[in-house]
Amino acid sequence: MHRVDIVIIGAGVVGLAVAAELSNSLTGQAIVVMERHHKFGMETSSRNSEVIHAGMYYPDGSLKARLCVEGNRLLYQFCKVWGVPHKRLGKLIIARTAEEVPVLESILNQGLANGVTDLELLEAGQVRQLEPHVAAVAAILSPSTGVIDSHALMYRLEYQARCQGTMFAYRHAVTMVERSGAGYRLTYRGPDGQSDWIYCDWLINSAGLWADKIPSWLGLDVEQAGYRIYPCKGEYFGVSNAKSGLVSRLIYPPPLKELKGLGIHATKALDGRLRFGPSAFYVQDLDYSVDEEHASEFYRAIKSYLPFIDLADLQPEIAGIRPKIQGPGDPVRDFVVRHEVEHGLAGLINLIGIESPGLTSSLSLAGMVANMIGKE
């Protein structure tokens, strides 16, 4: 049985960023990160496009808009200071037909409203100059979009937190959370399979795909609160041949309706490899396999803007699962970042529905959590 000041559940990129920030800003606090896997970032944080987003898609006044724009700047700064591999490649959001051009204009206006100041609307000839192998009648150029080595980022955040005294409890699965006086009692199963308890004053719920369990254990109606997680799977296919060199930037079609996803887009890995995805479909089971038969679906989507791609070029790569809090057919939902005082749970900060642009927003999310605790 142990007592600490702060417990963070989940060692994904957001949990690690929160640990690094809190250990820096709240000196002298005993902080523990609890993670059921044997190392950090084993789920959503390591199974994504590794894109540093600029923040042009998200609605006015949303946390996603504000935290992404701020996080973009913070993340590039962090990469420079800490030597995290990254490339500011730039991105084209394309219109494949004249009918899609108004969508680009809408995205451009939304980006300006969100504070993304470097976007530029390009005509077909300008697109061809930048990317001669891309079929598009127009595009938005986003110079501040890039890619990052997410594992290196998480390693640096963990290192920073450790150096500042944060303790990491890997292979410690939280199985119950209860109120205990003014704080919380967490029951967990350790590496030896035995149960034990830890007490804390502040509990940061950064459990990703499992984040709805913590408020449920504490008596909140997760349906009514809008905290229910709907796992949404996305698969990726890659190109391993020389065709990867025919594109130098990230290429995105217009986003899917209601921001279910950003469509099957083309990204560039740090090694120059071309990769496509993610798709987006809701699932019940957390299965990370890639169905090779879905290659034809990818091919049809990609061929509309990269005509040089053949079906035989596509090889299955990875799959990721997003912790969405919008169910099938529901309108777009914002991040939940909430100190649950109104629910009578002072000291509990829920981070729920942290999907894209969660990686880009990780440092700004951490700052937001630190401010919530600092005010108390």
UniProtKB/TrEMBL annotation:
Gene3D superfamilies in the cross-refs = D-Amino Acid Oxidase, subunit A, domain 2, FAD/NAD(P)-binding domain
Q: Which cofactor does it need?
A: FAD
Name the Enzyme Commission number(s) assigned to this protein.
Answer: 1.1.3.15
Single annotated GO MF: (S)-2-hydroxyglutarate dehydrogenase activity
Keywords, ordered alphabetically = FAD, Flavoprotein, Oxidoreductase
Q: Which residues form the FAD dependent oxidoreductase domain?
A: 5-371
Q: Does the keyword Flavoprotein apply?
A: yes
Under InterPro entries, the record lists: FAD-dep_OxRdtase (IPR006076), FAD/NAD-bd_sf (IPR036188)
Tell me the protein family, please.
Answer: Belongs to the L2HGDH family.
The protein here is known as: L-2-hydroxyglutarate oxidase LhgO
Source species of the chain:
Sporotomaculum syntrophicum
